[in-house]
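Hey, I'm writing a tutorial for new members on how sequence and structure tokens pair up, and I'd like a real worked example in the thread rather than a made-up one. If someone can provide the structure for the chain below, I'll link this post from the tutorial.
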Amino acid sequence: MTGFIGLLSACTKNPDTITPQTTASTSENTTVDSWILSNMRDVYYWNTKIPASPDTTLAPDVFFDSILNKYNATTNPTGDRFSWIENDANTLTAELSGQTLTTGMEYNLYLRTSGGTGVIAQVLYVLPGSPAQKAGLKRGDIISKVNGQLLSTTNYADLLYGGATAYTFGLASASGTTLVDTDKTISVTATTFQENPVFLDSVYTIGSKKIGYLVYNQFVPGANGSTANEYDAQVDAVFSKFKAQGVNEMVLDLRYNPGGYTSSSANLASLIGKGVSSSKLYFREEWNAGITPYLQKEYGSSFFITNFLDKSQNIGNNLSRVFVLTTDQTASASELIINGLRPYMTVTTIGTTTYGKNVGSITITDDSGKIKWGMQPIVFKSYNSLGQSDYSTGFTPNTAVEESLTLLPLGDTKEALLNEALYEISGSSVAGGRRATTPGNSLVTLGSSLQRKAGGHSMIRQLRNLTF
């Protein structure tokens, strides 16, 4: 096998983001497809499902798709929803570290009316210092037009994802469930931007409760190309502050976190977990039956094991529980936090059902540089210390709360999910009443920009000097 980039991941990306190589010759396709097939037969979690004689004259992206053990909700509910391929491996590695060509905002897409064709984009968050933030866009803004055209089911993909870099967004306002287009427009030009996943932290004091709150939007140890792990260090600093202030309750906001590096997931879990240490198992991996004996022989049983870390900033001794805020974009390495901490403390989830991602993949590239493609096939399934991996359909929230069409700033104590967590911690109404009095969003969802992030719905494990 050739060329591991040095990470394990489980990512999903819409097929329309991959450009088929229709101009490539049959021989070029065969070269790339043979490379794909050789690697897949070695490491693919469902390698016994690969067809015996696939057509290696197909364009690489089409070929890759043709050999997958495809998911079907009825006939193959445990099949593959996540493996994907990218025609530029260098771009892929940058995106996995949070560096992308972006306006700097994430949003959900909804139908304006049930049964209609109109579409809106509701801004979920805006990155500090990004073009969107500098232009004045903010959480809760509703976009109904792009470059003068009303968004609809037939044009929203082209207008939002068609490769443009200059956008003029037309805004709408909401009054209850009624949407009204306004004359307000905001122009933004996308740029290559590095996202810092440590979005917001606060400490709230309610009676004897000192409540730590962290909004964390991707498990990334450091910026693209950095070896300093500066984002992990920033998380450590947040928990050092929490510890110094005597935090005794914790609210972890992963509602927009689609996953990332398992090393950063282990780091965060090690700061929260009660009674955890480097001798305690965080999660273990199950690879396919063919390659497991080889990995066992070459690297030992520790290859499959990730333990907690010994962290001086750990606040677990002051906690009996942790509250995790979730949506259907809470995935993979985020779900690993929930599953991995449950054997050690009470984990209460608030929000909506998580994505359901208990498997991981490896990013594979060609060491020779002759093949420019990078692929991410699923190669392992994850289990916690109790042997549990039963969340392929997501974690159902302990308390169901939907975000409304009118979004308050993250960190605002009246904001829906946070307000419910504060209510459950304090046992009384906080900042204007509990979330149950606020209506949810009744609009039909069409998806989210978060689904299109490379590394979205991901579990990325760093590897060093691993060859096959």
